[in-house]
């Protein structure tokens, strides 16, 4: 070789070696999130009836967080905060009224394109980024193929899964699950219009009295309009909402729930195998244990806690499969594994009976009550994090963002406020205190509660400015509406706020008073000042959950085939272990 060629070869070799060293030094990330899982549903958090050996193994070999807090008690806002490291109302995903999550896949609301997710930052660091499973943060803005809210537009190179979520409408024969009262009113309106139309037609035909053609035509149009507004968006929800996508392509519509579990696991395994020689981020976002619950062959009837327990054990099996691949490929010491739930369990769901939020009051969609926002949190990284460590300091799902970015050597966004903090000093034992002196808890866009962890104190004071009204009176949840609301007559304001010391009363059973808590006045003053400072950081942004953004728009509907004839199926996969 000529000298110049030899120099070029040496330079190329140096660059390759440098890249290999950087890849070895840069950790992989596997994030595993279960949907609607209560903190008490897991063995290592106190459940002795449901078997979760794989999750428990991660806890024994890693760090378990006992005060891990979701930023919201519902899917869409909680996942927004997780992806962005920011309270969801900063992204416009705090609701003003009854609609607190994205309701239709063909709505125009979602995670704004100008948000910077941790996946976007990791892409700039050379990571292969993949999301397998549930998204529920929107798809399109103005046209069927703009994909402005899609995972591929938010930092994920690869996406396979549910761009929406599971609803009972996804299950053949399932009961209406979205705006059921609105559906009922539209159906009754169409019936009244049909009866009126047929009555006038009969009167005209029999000649009882004269009825104008315009009147009959107007009633016919009213019936057709009311029937269409009811039937097209609502009765076809299984087709519109319950789909699978691979990147931007719809691959199954409606999706087959019987084979979904196996396909998600296989996709997650293949993503790891494809990217084993470079740094990768895998976000496995399970559809379990959201209703409708799965009845997979290998798990149905196997748990001691009914169908719900079967689903928890199946979710544990899915995560175990992914961990097995990491170990088989000798990636364990280079891979940080994280496990959590997006919020607390849904206790009003009759199908989810057996779900348990532990000793904590409330559950999914119940504002700031602890049962809806305190979730399991486990970090596992052999050789880097201590095994069997338990941290009882307040932490947040929003903390995952800066933790990952800093570990990857990335740069945190400087053009916006981040509400999360890097957890690594706490996880490694270099720090004993959480950086969250104050945390704020929202019900929709309304500040519902706040907590204060004073310096040089183990106390964790929490105040509720308002609480949801449970129904029927005396119940432990909102059984009449299935989800608690955050506005108007659905809540009760408290002046002074309800106050608890979670260090002594984690179940929030006995409110403190000036007579029972010496620091009562100081707590109210400190939290009031913190709330005032927090509100100064909020900027007005478009409301992604307005009626105009959440309602079904046919021109935004993802479709395989020619709209409205959307139908396709993917090759079937296995649904889990046999027997």
UniProtKB/TrEMBL annotation:
The keyword Metal-binding applies. The chain crosses the membrane at residues 186-209, 215-238. The keyword Hydrolase applies. Residues 27-409 form the Sulfatase N-terminal domain. This is Sulfatase N-terminal domain-containing protein. Belongs to the sulfatase family. One of its GO terms (molecular function) is metal ion binding. Keywords: Calcium, Hydrolase, Membrane, Metal-binding, Transmembrane, Transmembrane helix. It comes from the Eukaryota. Gene3D superfamilies: 3.30.1120.10, Alkaline Phosphatase, subunit A, Helix hairpin bin. GO terms for cellular component: endoplasmic reticulum. Its cofactor is Ca(2+). InterPro entries: Alkaline_phosphatase_core_sf, Sulfatase, Sulfatase_CS, Sulfatase_N.
């Amino acid at each position: 070789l000529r000298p110049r060629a030899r120099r070029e070869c040496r330079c190329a070799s140096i660059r390759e070696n440098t890249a290999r060293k950087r890849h070895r030094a840069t950790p992989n990330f596997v994030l595993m999130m279960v949907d609607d899982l209560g903190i008490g549903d897991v063995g290592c958090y106190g459940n002795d009836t449901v078997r979760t050996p794989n999750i428990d193994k991660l806890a024994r070999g890693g760090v378990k967080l006992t005060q891990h807090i979701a930023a919201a008690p519902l899917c869409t806002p909680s996942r927004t905060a997780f992806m962005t490291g920011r309270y969801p109302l900063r992204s416009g995903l705090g609701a003003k009224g009854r609609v607190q999550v994205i309701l239709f896949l063909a709505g125009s609301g979602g995670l704004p394109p100008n948000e910077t997710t941790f996946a976007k930052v990791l892409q700039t660091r050379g990571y292969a980024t993949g999301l397998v499973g549930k998204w529920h943060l929107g798809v399109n803005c103005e046209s069927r193929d703009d994909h402005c809210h899609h995972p591929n537009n938010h930092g994920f190179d690869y996406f396979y899964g549910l761009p929406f979520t599971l609803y009972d409408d996804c299950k053949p024969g399932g009961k209406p699950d979205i705006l059921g009262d609105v559906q009922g009113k539209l159906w009754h309106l169409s019936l009244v219009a049909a009866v009126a139309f047929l009555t006038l037609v009969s009167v005209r035909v029999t000649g009882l009295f004269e009825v104008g053609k315009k009147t009959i035509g107007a009633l016919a149009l009213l019936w057709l309009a009311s029937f269409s507004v009811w039937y097209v968006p609502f009765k076809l929800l299984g087709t519109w909402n319950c789909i699978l996508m691979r990147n931007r392509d719809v691959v199954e519509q409606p999706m087959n729930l019987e084979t979904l579990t196996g396909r998600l696991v296989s996709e997650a395994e293949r993503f790891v195998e494809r990217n084993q020689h470079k740094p990768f981020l895998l976000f496995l976002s399970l559809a379990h244990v959201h209703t409708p619950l799965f009845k997979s062959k290998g798990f149905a009837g196997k748990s001691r806690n009914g169908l719900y327990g079967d689903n928890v054990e199946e979710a544990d099996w899915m995560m175990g499969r992914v961990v097995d691949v990491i170990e088989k490929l000798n990636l364990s010491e280079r891979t940080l594994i994280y496990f959590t739930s997006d919020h607390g369990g849904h206790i009003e769901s009759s199908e989810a009976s057996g779900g348990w939020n532990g000793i904590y009051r409330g559950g999914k969609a119940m504002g700031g009550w602890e049962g809806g926002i305190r979730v399991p949190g486990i970090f596992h990284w052999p050789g880097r994090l201590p095994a069997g460590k338990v941290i009882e300091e307040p932490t947040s799902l929003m903390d995952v963002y800066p933790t990952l970015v800093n570990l990857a050597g990335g740069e945190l966004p400087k053009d916006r406020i981040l509400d999360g903090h890097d957890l690594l000093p706490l996880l490694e034992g270099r720090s004993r205190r959480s950086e969250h002196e104050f945390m704020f808890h929202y019900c929709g866009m309304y500040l519902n509660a706040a907590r204060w962890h004073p310096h040089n104190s183990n106390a964790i004071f929490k105040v509720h400015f308002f609480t949801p009204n449970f129904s029927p009176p005396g119940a432990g949840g909102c059984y009449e509406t299935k989800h608690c609301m955050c506005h108007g007559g659905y809540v009760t304001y408290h002046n002074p706020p309800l106050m608890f010391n979670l260090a002594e009363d984690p179940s929030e059973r006995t409110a403190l008073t000036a007579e029972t808590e010496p620091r009562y006045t100081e707590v109210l003053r400190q939290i009031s000042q913190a709330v005032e400072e927090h509100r100064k950081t909020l900027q007005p942004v478009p409301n992604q959950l307005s009626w105009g953004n959440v309602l079904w728009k046919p021109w935004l509907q993802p479709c395989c085939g020619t709209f409205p004839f959307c139908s396709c199926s993917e090759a079937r996969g296995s649904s889990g272990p046999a027997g």
